[in-house]
Design brief:
Largest sheet of chain A: 5 strands, parallel
Order of helices and strands of chain A: EHEHEHHEHEHHEEEEEHEEHHHEEHH
Distance between the termini of chain A: 67 Å
Strand content of chain A: 15-25%
CATH superfamily of the largest domain in chain A: HUPs
CATH topology of the largest domain in chain A: Rossmann fold
Oligomer: homotetramer
Number of strands of chain A: 14
Structural class of chain A: alpha/beta
Number of helices of chain A: 13
Radius of gyration of chain A: 25 Å
Chain lengths: 407, 407, 407, 407
């Protein structure tokens, strides 16, 4: 790979990406463009602008954007249509944000004539894969720079020395190692590393930053009603809202009631197991509610097909293949199923759990006439069941007869 | 089908199966053998003996058995190795009991020279299918009698008239319709029908019979440690126990802490949607713990294959195909994966939720050496990630290059 | 089911459906509408009109239609995009025609105010299921009449007696039993029954009606070039043609060269095994060619997903679920994959086999630059493979280390 | 990776692996052990011994073994139980041989105290992955040396110079580039590269080395009867034979009749497409026959599950994951299905095609009594089909009713 001339850096404004910024300038003598996105991580973005300017980035090379609506509308919601869970439990909060960042990095590269993008993910994790597969899928000629895999700043001491040598301000609380590493966006906060590295030790309480401990959540349950149209949430308690507003509001509710915490050991794409603590308050409610509305509006054939496709879909997103033809094929199938997933679900929130307690819809497939214990006025002929069972049993009978010959 | 001469009836001792007993005698003039099983439903069995005798069954034709250990060891535990959930949420508590009952019905038919078995499931539900597919798979020549699909006792009034005409005692509280229908065993209690028939109405509190309402559960969380060997739970808090004892103990813990309640609209095999309330206290803890121990002892390739097979496996059990070659094939694959699923999980129980907070095992695949944020002494070369990503990206680059030609 | 007032009958003009026509008139005293479709079965349709008139059908109640283009365009081609094979071998020639016939039956019922449709399939086969599931999916209120499951004309003798009693003309060669039963359309000819009922006996030569015996096919191979656009064949040897014309032309070529014969024992949806002989000359070439063009234009992620979905897709069509949400979901995924399946394939036809020998496309993903044994000018860095392998091996190494502890 | 001290080399005796042998000695100054296996590639092995000795290998370090029986019994036959085809067409002839070679390399390393193994696969292909994943799975501490990824002998000229400089004899016909590259074993011969690199150009006739061109095959068809026990072929034309003998005999038959040639563009695991010509004469017959015997002895539930698992199974083998827990899980499921796959198949061989024409078995599930067009003496009640269809249709009717509301 020839040296990059102009690099778009995913820049948070924090110490690490500031070091990367300076390292890119010194290592490659290249022009740096910074991209700082508001994904709902809950931090002010303007300080990133000031810091970038201080580090010598031209104002026209500083991109700061609020991408929360795009994030929820085009990434989070399509994923939730699939009821996606990685390894049965993980709501993919980090995984789903990476392709959007890469998409903007590549677009900004094209706008600014940059030939490379750079990110601050390490060489051990999944995020490097997600960033880079997305970037290559969107621009096969783009260069991707992953400083953590390249440089020799392999210890905290060396990083701080580099920062000092290049006049990068170091906040007091950044002098020592953080007790764990955090990633946050509108969908979730994840924590991993250091104090969490032994999966046989419980995570200390201070790891949980976003969700109230269930023990401290309100003593009274709270009901929330979520309305869906074609598989996407569109209103809360009767009030229509934009996608990001909905997720924000569900985060408030879930956070208050201790909902969506997960302590997980998962399998990284790069081959190792890692332990993380995830807080996904709004997403956990949303998944529960989406399942609730599908229960009455989705046909069993469609639902069972979705259940069967889901693990593969979730794995693709986890592994970084959002921008792949197979993810798009699965999305086409999933989206096709959501045409009538319209209606309202009531979810009960209480001290760590979110449970569907009622759901209704004009699009309901539930037929009280068929299922009732009362007289059904001929909706269903119980005699039909006999033929149904007998033909389903036919092959089993033939098998049993055959097998008996060889016992 | 020629008329049966001797019938083995799945007999609870309750009013409905007593009516069936008498109906079989009067309709077919056949000898009736009763089979009453203790599956952990929490009822005394001896009254069933007295009642059968009173209805004219010869003592040698009355079978009363405690099958709880067989139920958990040979049915529940194998199913939990798969992390089976039907439609994402249902723990299959009724589905998994039916094949065992059918197996004993057929075995008793063979022991007593009976040519038929009979059950009390209606023509609208899944249980008729499960009973009958199992029976036919175990004895292709057996006759199966499903009185609810045959007789003309199609109203409560007619049933009571029949009972009175045949001196079947009717408990006072059975005169009226029950407000909902219940099935129970060691794994779960399910409720459905009547007051639950509108899925847009919340289930009334009195439906929940087995699990404390989360709001009334203890204010202090409780930890439980579950040890596994080859995928099966073998000890609780360090004390080795038999399978049924383990599930009983987990039921007590879960019931106390409000764990395992589910309000679900599901798709029946016979083609309609139905709404049920399930209480699966011990099973919910067991599933959480099993996932917890798999997180550190199961390889990702094995785990992802299991995730992919699971929905099909669960559907087979739900639909009544426990005794089918494809369920046995899937079981062989699943069991193969459990050879090292050995270790201990700590689960926190609190007001409706059960969450893994720690897990450890001599069989752990988790490598702190690989995952650590600290120096890893060469366990992992971050440079490897570059090649890994580049080759995973190769096809995406070729795609992007091709697709760009046609934009 | 109340008695039908007006019935649309799938009418071939042959003896069996003429008997059904008359039986409907006499049994239900209902008005009959006949629908006779040209699906490419190779028979004149006008005699069916004359016969229907002779049997008392009003001219305005006689529908005779050439649906070949619709059949190939809307049913055969979408299915071939999936490379669908049932049980590894069967090209689904009968299965794919049934939903089209049902669709027209229901549409004609709506046009003519009929309340029922009727078909001539027996109670043992798959076709009854396909006809009826399609009809119910398109009109849930329609009545479906399947005379073979209802009437008492259960022997050849009784059928002929009924025909004679009702002045239905009987061709001389219809007096005796046919030695086997045939279904034909533009995609295939199938034969089953009687002389084919022992799968341990070879099918006699006279069963093969459409494809030249390979031993009698030309001694010289013939090449054919098939062009595809977005997954559908659009031209043969450079000449653009309509869908039905393409299949007709491929049938001629395949029939001439002995291609597409299959002797199969398959599993019917109704639970039994049956043996059939299939002749699918054009379809066999088309499948081979479609695979050939996908080889260079379809990405591996998309292709492997298709391979994984295909058996389920084929099973749905075989079982009669063409008009089901899950088939439509799978179709959406498959169609999404075909956007660049455009290019040309050369297939060699010779004495029973059709083999792709060359394929080329502007949309090709094949990169000679990457794969070449020669210098590749940096297109591919072989060093990348090391990291790729090492990270793919990581979990296997951790497993081996763990497992070694317990040996 | 520290330098290896003693290396076991997969050694063919040819020029390339002789260069590798010498390069290992000179580059690492390490002791070399050679392993030469007879996998049925059709070459004498003793010349490899002489050549190894000439290159300075101690006789005790020269391993020459006939592994044909192990190859067919433990690798080929288990794979054929799955009817494995990669990308719909490829019989995996190269893929299935690699794990066996790696297994022996690692075993010999353990016997001889070697710390490394080496292979002659290039950095662009799949074989490097297969060799190395297998080696790491069997010994996580083993070093693997892949000279083609390491050395600077990147052109034919340099290789020949190195050979001359080290007194490695060069056969006259090895001076120039071979027109294509070949791999062979008892299952297949594959050819790729150079003259085959343009998939739009037909492969020249001289590429086909093992199978007679169909045009030149005998004009008379030949029948062969293959007997199976539990899914494995055990006899040909009534004569019991060992696994390798069976495959050898089928190769002779298939080769004579022009069977098993395939011109394929496939997707390599490392991300690129490549074009290969495969000749798999015996394997093609074996697959056809195995399917034939499964048709009558395998239940549809088992068969459809196998069809669904197969693409994943084949992909695992293609990608080099033979020694992985997920391949072993799938194998457990597949093997479970084969318990009654016992019986005999007659296959007709003629000018390039192998077709099942008859099959019979004491374990047959085919029931003429059920399927017959004649009177079936009550084996099957056609009325059952009505209930079967009506319940299968129920959800489709509910869907149609719902959907109609929104049109």
């Amino acid at each position: 790979m020839s040296a990059p001339k102009k690099v778009v850096l995913a820049y948070s404004g924090g110490l690490d990406t500031s070091i990367i910024l300076k390292w890119l300038q010194t290592e490659y003598r290249c022009e740096v463009v910074t991209f700082t996105a508001d994904l709902g991580q809950g931090e002010e973005l303007e300080p990133a602008r000031a810091k970038a300017e201080m580090l010598g980035i031209a104002p026209s090379n500083i991109y700061i954007e609020d991408v929360r609506e795009e994030f929820v509308r085009d990434f989070v919601f399509p994923m939730f249509r699939a009821n996606a869970l990685y390894e049965g439990l993980y709501l993919l909060g980090t995984s789903i944000a990476r392709p959007l960042i890469s998409k903007r990095l590549v677009e900004i590269a094209h706008e600014t004539g940059a030939d490379a993008v750079a990110h601050g993910a390490t060489g051990k994790g999944n995020d490097q894969v997600r960033f880079e597969l997305s970037a290559y899928a969107l621009d096969p000629a783009i260069k991707v720079i992953a400083p953590w895999r390249e440089w020799d700043l392999t210890s905290r001491t060396k990083l701080l020395e580099f920062a000092e040598a290049h006049q990068i301000p170091i906040a007091k609380n950044k002098r020592g190692e953080a007790p764990f590493s955090v990633d946050a966006n509108l969908l979730h906060t994840s924590s991993e590393g250091r104090v969490l590295e032994d999966p046989g030790q419980e995570a200390p309480d201070y790891v949980y930053q976003r969700v109230t401990r269930p023990e401290e959540a309100p003593d009274a349950p709270e009901m929330v009603e979520i309305a869906f149209e074609k598989g996407d949430a569109v209103a809360i308690n009767g009030e229509a809202m934009s996608p990001a507003t909905i997720l924000t509001r569900l985060n408030e509710l879930g956070g208050k009631h201790g909902i969506g915490i997960l302590d997980l050991v998962e399998n990284r794409f790069v081959g190792m197991k890692s332990r993380g603590v995830y807080e996904t308050p709004g997403g956990t409610i949303l998944l529960e509610a989406h399942r609730g509305i599908e229960q009455i509006t989705l046909d069993s054939g469609a639902g069972h097909l979705k259940d069967w496709l889901m693990p593969r879909y979730a794995e693709l997103i986890y592994n970084g293949f959002w921008f792949s033809p197979e993810r798009e094929m699965l999305q086409a199938a999933i989206d096709k199923s959501q045409e009538h997933v319209t209606g309202t679900v009531r979810v009960k929130l209480y001290k760590g759990s979110a449970r569907t307690v009622a759901r209704w819809s004009d699009h309901s497939l539930y037929s009280e006439a068929h299922v009732t214990f009362e007289e059904d006025a001929g909706a269903y002929d119980q005699k039909d069941a006999e033929g149904f069972i007998r033909l389903n049993a036919l092959r089993l009978k033939l098998l049993a007869t055959r097998n008996a010959k060889f016992k």
